[in-house]
Specification:
alpha/beta; five-stranded mixed sheet; eight-stranded parallel sheet; single chain; Ribosomal Protein L25, Chain P; 244 residues
Length: 244
């Protein structure tokens, strides 16, 4: 019988009963057709994983029994960060999904000069919640028990102003810079700055480099905005993380 994973934000207690409601209930019962006796796996986004069994199914909720709770660490020893220029629609969704699967620790979406997404504050909040659901779904699929930290969108200028230590931050840029193998994590942390469609403007690149942030070359070919961060995170995990 298939085990289904769900995110449950509160800490669960072994040998207690609770109700499964909302999106998790809809997905389990209406989409995946789970029934009484099915096994579920719940995680709290902070490292706890719990086994549960469906006891009964009602119209809008299901009663489940928490059978076992444990801390299971599937996080890489290498912590990775992504300062990602916001791209349109599915491109940004793809970056968030794959970055989460690859173990990214924190993601800061940024609005750049060439960003094609223009929203008011209310719609930015909705977009941020949409992105959060993508990271949750990616954790459900990949077996991660810790959610990456997803910050609300800010301007690139604001993101750069917040940088305290740039020794482990690198700009992924097709022109100029050093080969990827010359990058070095600092205290097991490395962070990448990636542009949206069209990349960064000359002024933005100059402002980034003025902080002492080095540019990295991702090979001789120009990569799409959704390809570049995924490739960088995978290479980083291979070189210094848990892919090696």
């Amino acid at each position: 019988m298939r085990t289904i994973r769900f995110y449950h934000p509160t800490t669960l207690v072994q040998e207690t009963e609770m109700q499964l409601e909302g999106d998790a209930f809809h997905h389990a019962i209406n989409v995946l057709r789970c029934k009484k006796g099915y096994q579920l796996e719940l995680f709290d986004g902070k490292g706890q994983q719990s086994q549960a069994e469906i006891l009964s199914v009602e119209r809008r909720s299901a009663q489940i029994l928490i059978q076992k709770c444990e801390q299971i660490d599937r996080e890489s020893s290498l912590k990775t960060g992504l300062i990602q220029g916001i791209s349109k629609g599915e491109r940004m969704d793809y970056v968030l999904q794959k970055a989460t699967e690859l173990g990214v620790s924190q993601i800061q979406p940024v609005i750049t000069e060439r960003c094609n997404v223009q929203l008011d504050d209310a719609r930015w909040e909705k977009r941020h919640e949409h992105w959060r659901k993508i990271t949750i779904s990616a954790c459900e699929q990949s077996g991660r028990n810790v959610l990456p930290e997803l910050f609300p969108p800010i301007s690139l200028e604001q993101a750069l102003q917040q940088k305290q230590n740039v020794t482990a931050t690198f700009l992924l840029h097709p022109e100029g810079g050093v080969p990827f193998d010359q990058a070095k994590p600092q205290n097991k942390f490395i962070e990448f700055i990636v542009g949206s469609e069209g990349g960064f403007s000359e002024d933005e690149v100059n402002n980034i480099n003025a902080l002492g942030i080095q540019s990295l070359i991702m090979g001789p070919r120009i990569l799409r905005s959704e390809t570049c961060p995924v490739a960088a995170l995978a290479i980083a995990q291979f070189c210094w993380g848990d892919f090696s």
